Amino acid sequence: MAELVQNIRRLTNLVYPKAPQDVKETLAMEQFVDALVNPEMPLKIKQSRPVDLNDAVRHTVELESFYRAERRQQGMVGPTVTQPHSGTKEMDDMRYT
After folding, report:
1. CA 92 to CA 77: how far, in whole Å?
2. Positions of the region Disordered (predicted)?
3. What's the DSSP call for residue 84?
4. Which end of the chain is less congested by CB atoms within 10 angstroms, N or C?
């Protein structure tokens, strides 16, 4: 998850170098939430009203631990976030549209 967050921050800064920091944080936070695999997570994270990317990550880690404990009791464990990918094409598409 740390690598995903670093990639999102890096790409956001590359694509929007002159944007205000609060705008970059909002965009990065939205990209992070969109990368979550568990279909229930994005809504729950948005409902927690995170103030920045770090806050969204903190809520995600907390929820992930709850879900893992629940799945462990049921004998199922799976990933919460997708494998990090370059995301460059998506960011380029956003930049040029």
Report:
1. 34
2. 72-97
3. P
4. C
Burial 49-78 (b: 16+ CB within 10 A, else e): ebeebeebbebbeebbeebeeeeeeeeeee
Instruction: Taking the CA atoms of 30, 87, 17 and 9 in sequence, report the sign of the dihedral they define.
Output: positive
pLDDT in tens, 10-49: 999 999 999 999 999 999 999 999 999 888 899 999 999 9
Query: How far apart, in whole angstroms, are the C-alpha atoms of residue 33 and residue 30?
Result: 5
Q: Which among 19, 8, 20 is positioned nearest to 90, based on CA atoms? A: 8
How many domains would you assign to the chain?
1
Predicted confidence (pLDDT) per residue in 65-74, tens digit: 998 888 888 8
Q: HEC states along 4-22?
A: HHHHHHHHHHHHCCCCCHH
